[in-house]
Amino acid sequence: MGYPLKDKVALITGGCRGIGKSIAEKFAEAGAKIVISCRNQPHLDEVASELQKKQVQVLPLAAHNRKIEQLDQLFEKTVQEFGRIDILVNNAAVNPAMGPLVEMEEKAYDVIMLTNLKCYTYLSQLVGKRMVEQGEGGNIINISSAGGVSPDQGLGLYCISKAGINMLTKVLASELGPYRIRVNAIAPGLVKTKFSEALWSNEDLVEKEMAHTPLKYMLMPEDIANTAYYLATDQSSYTTGQILVIDGGTQL
Q1: Over the stretch 3-54, which tens digit does the pLDDT of each residue have?
Q2: Catalytic residue selected from 3, 109, 122, 158
Q3: How would you class 135 by CB atoms within 10 Å of its CB: exposed for 0-12, middle for 13-18, buried for 19 or more?
Q4: Is 198 exposed, middle or buried (0-12, 13-18, 19+ CB in 10 A)?
Q5: Is 230 known to be catalytic?
Q6: Which of 79, 102, 93 is nearest to 11 (CA)?
Q7: Domains in the chain, ordered, with CATH?
């Protein structure tokens, strides 16, 4: 594979586990300098120790994605340590409420929208400005969901937040394109992670999912990491503003 991301600085939110951790591992193998964030510093330190075995620089920074001042610190400490940011992966997300949309409480709305949409927007603003100043292009990769393209039953608020991410991706791609900053989103179907365990541990639900999934197997975090790698490298040099739905063909 070589080192196509050698000396690139990649900031990955939600990097403690699941999709974020797999992306960090993939980028590290490609030679990137890695900054990972989540709320739990001990978990971050464990992942950082694993990544450092790949002989790459890793900076683990705890940050709560619903606290703007902590996002400011995450951005500032990254720039202080590495002097630049070349890749931003907005990945941290929550889904604390399931059920019909008409029954959702305001608190659930605020938590989901602040975490899944506002923090993506705010970090993209900070990093996007920095990339413009650097004058060397860049990459913003948003982790969305197939639910942001076609709604999933019982996940209404989550789907709305992900649909917002898809439009955020298109707006940023349009505005930042002249600066050679590419912005794309990955919209996975059901991925086997801790985050989605309540879904994939339900045998009846999985059986129904596989019944209309042509590829007949469940997504793994590594599948999404491979897509993120494609978007972060020159393999996708003329790709921007795209929502890549990775769902095994479920929406066909």
Answers
A1: 999 999 999 999 999 999 999 999 999 999 999 999 999 999 999 999 999 8
A2: 158
A3: exposed
A4: exposed
A5: no
A6: 79
A7: 9-244 (3.40.50.720)
